[in-house]
Amino acid sequence: MTDYTNQFMPNSLTEIRVEVNQRHLIDKMLARYAAEFVVFRELMQNADDAKTTAVEIIFEGTTDGTLTKTIFKNNGFHFREQDWNRLKKIAEGNPDEQKIGAFGVGFYSLFSVCENPKVSSGGLMMEFFWRGDQLYARHGPDGSKDLKWTTFEMEMRTPREFPNLDSFSRFLATSLGFTSNLCEVSVYFNKDRVIHITKKIGQPQSIEIRSDINCESPKGIFKLLSADLCNVQIDARKVCIPPGTLSSRYCSEEVASVYLKIASAKLRVRVSDSICDEMERLTKKKPPNQTKIHILLPNNNDFNMDKSSNIFKDLLPFPEQGRIFIGFQTHQTTGCSVHIAAHVIPTVERESIDLVDPTLSIYNSEMLCSAGILSRLLYENEMYQISKLYQNAICTQKSTSECEKRAAHVLEHFTFRSSTPNYKVAEIIEPQFFNCCSSKVSILSTNGVKPINMIRIPDPEMAAFIKTISVVPEIVLERCILFFNRAETVLNLIEKASINDAFEELKSRTLNQDEMEAAMKWWISYSIKQNITKLGHGRFAQHAVVRNGINALPLKNVHYFLNIKTIPPESDIPLDVLPYSVSKTFKLNELKKYFGNWVELPLGVWAKYILKKYKIENDSVFSEKFIEILSQGYKSMDSESRTTICKLLSQKSCIPTQFGLRKPVDTYFPEVILFEDLPRFTMNNISEDFFLGMGVHKHVELQLVFSRMVNNENLDHMKLVEYFSSISKDLKNNDIEKLKTTAIWIEENADINNPKTKIRRYLAKDLYAPFPINRWLRLPVIYWKGNWIGNSDEVNFMSTLGLQEYPSLQVILRLASPPTAPQIREKALNYFIDNLRDKYREYKANLIEDEFLPCDNTGIYARPSDCFSNPDCIFMGFNALRKDLRIRAEELGVRQHPNGKQLLKRLSNNLPNSIDEAKICFEYLSSRRGDFDHEDWKVLRSLNFIPVQDKSIFGKISHYSPKECFLNCSNESYANILPNVDFGEVANIFLENCGVKREPSSLDLAEYLVSSSKDCWNRMDEDSYVSILGTIAFNYAAIFKERPTLYEEMKQSPILLGRKKYGNSERYELACANEIFINDNDRYRDMFNALTCQFKDQKMEEFYRILGCQLLSSNVKTTHEPEGTPISSQVSIEVLEKIQERVPWYYSSIPNDNIKYEVTWIENLNVMEVDRIYVTYELTTNNMINREEVSSSISEKENTYTLYISRTTADFTDIASDLIQHIHKQPQRQHSLTLYTYLTSSIDVLQRLGYPIEKTKKASKGRPPESRSPTTEPPNKVRKIDPSAPIPSNELQNLLRGGIMSCRSNFQDSVYSPPTVNSVPESHCDTVPETSLKYVKTEGEIELHVATNMDPSSILSASMTRALKSFIRVLVNIAEIFEIPRNKINIFYDLDSTTVAFNRDRTLFFNLKYYIEFKEPFNKAMISWFMTFCHELAHNFVHHHSAEHEFFLQSYARHYIPKLFEKLGGGNSGTIVAGQSVTPSRTVYNPYA
């Protein structure tokens, strides 16, 4: 750059000194020094650098706290000459690399509070003052004899408040934390001392640098050479001044002290030359060869400090983070709870570390790494001291809690978090702290100080039995949980005590029973948490050994545990049973589940052990106790053990009886009192099954009873009842069965007193209890002596044998059903209903086959599933429950209505055969819509069940499916061809659910035409068919999307209308798409009489093309045969010039999407005059040929076009028609008319008509590119019209007629006309409001619409009929005046609209609301709505209301008003006047011409 300057810059240029606005410069620098007490921070830093030991700060002011002057004094060395020189230089920092200052702006912080600071030192002074925006200084002797102090005097620029003593004292105490020399600070207000802080520093002690610690920073810039540790005590006194005064008299004094440890390290500095040079450039000083770094750690005895004092709040950061000190405290935190002081390079404002500048970032990062190393040294030194204290406590058997608290104190101060505001600081220090040493960081464990990876985070559940594994003490873990969470999950330094640790503990020693209990509880908890499988449960027992008395019992030898509910704990037990003292606190299922193969000590095993060890026959007391234990636990034995035990005991005399110990087979239960000589056991609370299993008898066998009775003749069945009922619980099943199958019971009507009478005996199950109801129902009742007492033993026993208290469900229903006698039948029914809930709960209505329920029809009985409680079901042939029983229908299981399947089946089998019958049926089914499921509705949609009156044959009813029918179609055309039904509002709801639609959709219409187009054409007028076709055309995209296959069907089906001449008339024909041409050339149509699509609506033509109709012109091949020699005459030249001038104007007015050839083809056009011109036309699809003479024709050869014109007959009408064939893809009649206007009208006329010629007049040949943008406006849009300028009558007539012909029909079900606002003030309708409509129906070819927020029936109501017909008469009359087809007129009814009529894209809409409101007589209505027609037709040319729109409105009115008067005057049969009917003619208008 220097060479470039020397080479190219002239030597004559004048050098100009750059001026600096010093006031602004200082103000902007101080703006970055916005920290609180920044002035005192800088002055105290400078004082410490000057070896100051004491500082005094004196505030002078009034007693209300207003300061006028501040004096700062220090007793450091005096200013030297270089200091005075540097003081007056901005941004020239202290060159001493051991000093903090780097930017030379610290002193200038004084200007933040004063204008003219004054400095005195060593008898000299320097005072600063301003001249304008430039700073000056005076320097010289100050005349003072005080040589001790260096003084800074600051007269306040404006009065300031005295600083908050709490905040200021905290700032001063924190500032003394890392000062090297400054040890005392005194603060005065006037002459009163309000703050006094002193610092005492103990003798430094060297910190050993272990060999496993790497003392060098990652890039080698710093290396830690030595480190020492000293204790520091800071004492503070602060006057507590009450609010409102600053007088220190009679004020209390706050006294506080704090004890700290400061670790200091000496660092060797070695930087590369490039870094050194860059740092010197940035900081104006070279990096030092050596530097120091300090870390402040509060002593653990800081609890001695007065907790109410906040003076040392910032000096003791925990639990918050410490700060980085660069001389004094900055905003940057360290990431842990210790302060770090280092000569890092700060940002300019001295509040953050510069980690942005690439060079300074390297230097500062390396310095922070050294801070991490010193932090580790300090931490490990603390752990070493704690280790010695811990060993001493162990040796002297003292508590280690103080060691644990001290260890927690150190560890919580070295727990790292994210630092702020720069997170990178912690991310630099923390890794160096952990990684600078090859050994893992040490922490205190339950076994002393160890590397952290040899210690485990304790599991509380293991604590009771873990003794040899080193874990983190509870106090340390609780206070340092953040550290251990991070050490475990992020740093991977420590693990939680694991199962392997537990197993190591178990393998290392024998546990006492309490420890084993705790270990087992841990194992259960661990198994649950870890979802240990059954295969792993035995692992615990493989390692654990428990002390059992004097013996050690390996748990792997244990097979059983004791259940004291089965075996008393004091019982003698086998050796492989877990001691109860260990197992007693565990649930039995825990012992079974989590300890491998342990099981509860089986009673059988224990019994065998006892029987093998003891002789129970010799000791009745022991035998009774043993039998009692076995009896209580008998049910818990397995079947094999039961059998074995019972077999062993059955042969022993072990059962105590009134006759002594007896064998079980010789003993009876105490209840057997029938005979006194039988031995009975005397024990209580025994297991019957156990005693029965041993062979003890519970009752006397029946054979024995019968053998001891006197004789069979005296057998009294009542005595048997009494005996057997007393032992009924003890009778065996075969005994009960024998009694059930023996006929020994007598009916109550038996003649038992007559010995000659043979008494019939019954089985118990064939008799009934002696109740009146059983007698009323004529059922056999048992003979019974005495009263029948319910629930007595005798009654219960007889019930066991089968005696019936009341008739069963089957019996009572049989009695209630025919052919039972009516009296019994009714009683049976009433009894059944009354006792249904109590005695017949097993009653399931759907399973009943008995026809016992009386129905409404006399003599008819039905099953519950075959009748219903709602009598409406009778309409469909179902049975209805008798009226008096309907209240109980739910209890009887009688449904209110048949279900959906039943209804569907009945409907399918019994179709309604009349409209009235169907109405009743459908109304009922409508009420049951909720009974049908998805499948039912699916069947109904396809079921032909809807009766429809055949319109061709009176009285003939045909049935259709719902998908084929429609509800009361509002469109009369649809109603004539589609099944149209209306069974009333309620019935119609059911039909709609079945799938009957309100109106046929476009898809329905399309499918109908495909299947029945010829039938449809024969049954409806052509306008209605055209309307259907138009609806399909407008929605064909949605139709093909919903049913893609329909596209091919429609292409192949004769559904389209083509028009063709027959004689003197034209008529429509049905044909397939490939048989119809789209008429794009009337000349060809007339020439070949081709079947063509005559519809000019864009949607209709598009629909025809989609189905495969081709353009007529594309199928006609022309051959030009000019006769005579072609010459270029004056006429041909003029024609060519006219074409080349006017055709580009025409191009500028048409949209791009209808251009066949670009305008440039005109440049290649020649015009030649010939005698005659013949053209041969061949319709290639039909091989039809026609040859005729024409006045002009265009031939094309190799991109050259020749227009031949006849000398005698040529005119611009034919020329325009020929040109249009080459201009438009789809030429139309109005195109030729418009081009003819361009070619024949004068420029003035064209300009007055508003044709776009201005741009093209100035342009060269070719179409202006800016006019090629598509437009939605009509092709004849008028841009500017001068109403006063005359227009030739024939030209204006053609324009007006073209506007009428451009009107369109509407095929949309919904119409939206957006609001528009016209700014032309003279317009009579400036604002056109928004209009949103929906289609209702077509009436006499005119579509009816209503507002979307109105009910469609509103326009069809009886009250509207007269007004609607009258309005239609008016509109049809006016439409005939303009020769507008009726299907291009639309009526809408919108009560909220202020629109009388609107023109939406050349479709006309008229509001019925205003016809009703105007209430005009017919003639007057004709005139007013005639003007409305003129207004809306004018919008075919001009969208907005303007002078041009008014021109066309008046033109229409003038041109057609004679026809209006002719209408109103009457006089011929074609005129319609008020009161006459309107008869639409099918031959007058082509609806889409």
TrEMBL record:
Residues 25-123 form the Sacsin/Nov domain. InterPro entries: DUF3684, HATPase_C_sf, SACS/Nov_dom. It holds the Pfam family SACS. Gene3D superfamilies: Histidine kinase-like ATPase, C-terminal domain. Residues 1255-1288 are annotated as: Disordered. PANTHER family: DOMAIN PROTEIN, PUTATIVE (AFU_ORTHOLOGUE AFUA_6G04830)-RELATED. This is Putative hatpase domain protein.
